[in-house]
Amino acid sequence: MLYIKNISKNYGSFTAVNDISLELPDKGIFALLGINGAGKTTLISILCGIVKADKGEIFYNETNYFEALKKDASLCSLTPQEFAFYPTLSVKENIDFFSQINTLSLKQRKEAIDFALNVCALEKYMNRRAANLSGGLKRRLNLAIGLLNNPKILFLDEPTVGIDPKTREFILNSIKNLSHERLIVYTSHYMNEVDFLADEIAVMDEGRILAAFKNGRQNRVLVLEPHNKTDVKTLNEFTPFTKCGKFLQSGAADEQTLSNLLEFVKKRGIELKSISLSPMSAQTMFLSLTNKDTR
Predict the structure, then answer these.
(1) 31 pLDDT higher than 90
(2) For the chain, how far is it from start to end, CA to CA, in angstroms?
(3) Has this prediction a pTM greater than 0.85?
């Protein structure tokens, strides 16, 4: 498990990451969902040791995360949004160069290269100069470099920006397969990708985690407009609600939360015309929590 406790990062008067606490599993895909500027990349940079947090702690299982990182070069790897390779070198030259950064034996290095090339299907492009690759192949090379240490935790920061639908599908399926053996922390503002990939989702906005939940197991509660403002105020004592047309909408709730809500309503004597429970996509969740348009 990766434990993030009360992490914050400021740049002058601007707070990029604001008191974030999360628990991430050993395997699967944990998605950080948010618009550009929400703080996703800063949080990832802290976890990769690129940026130092101003406060907070991070643990890997029961060990200080950064101490574990110093001892184990295969603990994590980052595939950034920007292309992190040399455009004047060939695919083979880039792979050979970046594979030497890791402290691996010759046998381990060969196994790591074979693994990365196989996952990203780059074998037939080895002699092609990186600058001459298509956008999709550049993304695949970027991902392959991130896999050269066969990391236990793979950080992917917007890995499908600017590519065609066919390559996006290939990369997403590759990421899905990789998640069976490792933790993948995936940042994106593409809601459909998050819905497809993620086992768990955290919604970020303005440096904060607004909600963290298991994908596909959460629902929304829609409450028809109460009879008076006093009822609206009282309902917000149970959980924060957002005005949505003539409805009040909670950020997230499962069947147990609905049961608790009904008990709360009964005890407080609140009159409601109807209550309904319906499935919630990542996009609906994001919009209900942030009240922002994702276009």
Answers:
(1) yes
(2) 34
(3) no
